[in-house]
Amino acid sequence: MSRKFKKWLVASIFCVGLIIALIGLLSNPLIQNMGNEEVDNMTPKKVEASKRKPANFDYSSVKMLNPASTTWGTAKDFVQGDTSDYAPVGKVAIPNVSLRLPIGKGLGHQVLSRGAGTMSEDQQMGQGNYAMAGHYMTNTQILFSPLKRVKIGDMIYLTDMQKVYRYRTYSKRTVPKNEVEVLKEVAGKKVVTLITCASPYANEPNRIVVKGELVGTSTDLNQYKNIFG
Fold it and tell me: Which residues are catalytic?
């Protein structure tokens, strides 16, 4: 192997390593920016229009976010302002763990790279079992990663831009990923169910499931500005 080729090989490896490192560093702030943009710019009109948009509700099709695909896809959407496949339905906030995210319709890539996604077509806030899924990341401050720090009694707030729904956490469990019981109605209760992977690793077999019971609603959105932003 010639000296010239060795130098080229070392330089190439260094460049590849640098690119991988930069991709990893960029992915987290881009995700945060996208989520914050959706939260800050959400309006009742946008939510109403989303009711007519189709969405993917196939939970088995959800793929783990990796830095390369996340950074490229998110950066492209951010620069181009592409939200064609994104249908906002509201916001979710858990102040005690600094979680504040947009809720999108379905479980598509644009939805889950920004925040929470709804798990069925006909669910309604404040009714039955309102179930949402989100990604767990290596940065435990973004997307649904803060669920790992939720405690019993923590308040969970949802809004559909018409009302605010207040839930109090009463259950937090780690269950196998195929545990569909968590999506069933809970007799005598109106609940919210939040689901994420138990770790950021590929093929994680378990899910963190947080449940809250509805304790009140309000039509005064201004009262909750400090929670939702």
Answer: 135, 197
